[in-house]
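Annotators were shown the component list below and the corresponding predicted structure, then asked to write short factual statements about the assembly.
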Amino acid sequence: MSVLVEKADLSLKYTGHYNEVKDLLFEGSSHVLNAQRNKAFQDFVMQGIPTRKNENYKYTNLQPQFLPEYKFIHQREEVEADLNEVFRCDVPQLNTHLTLLINGWYYQKNKEAELPEGVILGSLEEIANTNPELIEKYYAQIAKTEEDPLVALNTAFAKDGYFLYVPKNVTIEKPLQLINLLQSNKDTFATQRNLIVVESGASLQLLLCNHTLDLNTYLSNSVTEIFVGENAHFDYYTLQNEHNKATSLNSVFIQQERDSTATTHTSSLHGGLIRNNLKFILNGENAESNMYGMSFIDKKQHVDNFTQVIHAQPHCQSNQLYKNVLNDQSTGAFAGRIHVMRDAQKTNAFQRNNNLLLTDAATMQTKPQLIIDADDVKCSHGATVGQIDEEALFYLRARGIGEDKARLMMMNAFAHEVVQEIKIEALRERIDDLVDKRLKGEVARCHECAYNCEC
Amino acid sequence: MLIIKDLYVSVEGMEILKGINLKVKPGEIHAIMGPNGSGKSTLANVLAGKEEYEVTSGEVTYTGEDLLEMSPEDRAREGLFLSFQYPVEIPGVPMVNFLKTSINEQRKYRGQEELTAGEFLKYMREKMELVDMHTKLTNRSVNEGFSGGEKKKNEIFQMALLEPKLAILDETDSGLDIDALKTVARGVNTLRSPENATIVVTHYQRLLDYIIPDYVHVLYQGKIVKSAGKELALELEEKGYDWIKKEMAV
Ligand SMILES: Nc1ncnc2c1ncn2[C@@H]1O[C@H](COP(=O)(O)OP(=O)(O)O)[C@@H](O)[C@H]1O
Ligand SMILES: [Mg+2]
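Structure shown to annotators:
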């Protein structure tokens, strides 16, 4: 009974909040964003904050994460990013353009990145106001508010994030880097809305780093819609490195046209609760999608990767490889849904999820789901949950390698398959190093953020 | 160097070794022969420190120390080497990385400078030549996709790199053609010195044409039932193990 009341209260809290701040949300926003708000909010009210009863959130109960009294940021705040802090970060030493977002908002003092002609990278709020025609066609087209409560809530609250536009046949040689910082003086709820349009024949690599800069409790709910045009190439790397009091909810939607290739690569190194929703829509023939993910979690951390691949057209290929290393009492989940539609003949769809449990207390849930409506397709999926191979461990020790080191080698070996899919060499080396540190129990920080506390 | 006294070993509650006694001195080569299932690999694994084998009584002294008290890695660092009957594949651990770590962990233990990447590669190449090891194998993960014979060769390659005091070769000859067999023998014979000893576990006498043992022991049903000089191997070859079994039954 009391649980029910609390649940109702929690949804009411967000409903009340929306009505209270509605004017702020509409104020200063483009009609493109505002046009979606009320419907999005209705869709959120209908679905509520997800509990385990929601089939798609079976392994992650988000209710407790929505409970704290958060500060919301519905209007741009004047903030100073401590750039010294950030530039001490090792990742920016990569050969990358560097752009910051703070609590979901595009940082106004970002240096203008040197980008090829015609490429636009900037604040979604700003560009939606100045050039709504660039955004209108895409906004809220593949992130459907009626299909997911987090998307609905994001769309209701959305004001800013980044917008990236790469025109036809333009190649961006240097990988772009975006850093999402959570930085506040209070427990904070961050909303971030992003849009990426890669036109036909264009090509780029994007690296996203999510960090917390202080020890406040955070909930970040981001939605990213990505459109990859004909024969375009897009690589999307994410490095998640937040502290134990951070909840990171990320929904990424990618629609691909014919002959395009899109790859996502997600490294979850640290975080209290991480939920990654990833949906690929293969909307043109001969497109290729790759999804790689790895996580290293301990204490009471929780990581849940939820993928959906919609094969809507023939002759496409999708590959998924997710690996998790779970220590202490951490919990993990992977659910991967592949839907091959009736016309999608000659589809190749592969999925694999391997998990390494380092303790008896750690648990992993893994659930593949294939829905196949075409007859000439090749699909496979496989999942394993296991411990370190004791035979292999003994082999290493019998050659004089100490037990701890031998375990570390085995864990690195386990992750290696995913690490090696990182095509940016400097990033691969960096992540390799971070993974090694993480597995050694050292603080694998990219900058001086303070998650090495016992929180 | 190695003294085994009245060693009893069980696996999963089943007694497998039933009172083994063996003395190995520096410079010696001992062959342990015996039919399948008699406990040869059990003995080899117990000496290397495999935990699932429970020593119920007896003692083992190695270079004056209680071997059974030592961790597997310390046994290796003290110069004990087991060439596994079934070497395990370890995908994701590159051979070169594994070998370098192994050597440097051992060097560190002995208070020696670790080898740099350059020094290691040079040393590795030398040893590759000795046992005819191909780069197509050293470029892979440990034993990954190796054929049976390549796995055995890899064991000998590691032995050559680590230069152990006491090497125990568990059926390193099985599944090898005559050339590979000669390579294995060359590896062992090159290592041979007045300070080092080798225990060759085999159930064919074939290998013993190339590695001449000082002693031959027959292990049968968990006991050493016969020990003699190298001529015992020939006798076994001629008469087969049935001869031992019959003799035991009497
Ligand atoms: N890990 C194990 N678990 C259960 N039984 C074992 C194990 N290892 C060996 N044995 C048993 O012990 C006996 C001796 O095996 P082993 O030492 O491998 O013999 P050998 O090497 O002489 O062929 C066999 O009956 C075998 O089945
Ligand atoms: Mg055997």
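Statements collected:
1. The pocket of adenosine-5'-diphosphate (ligand 1) is lined by residues B 11-12, 16, 34, 36-42, 52 (CB under 6 Å).
2. Chain A touches chain B through 23 residues (CB under 8 Å).
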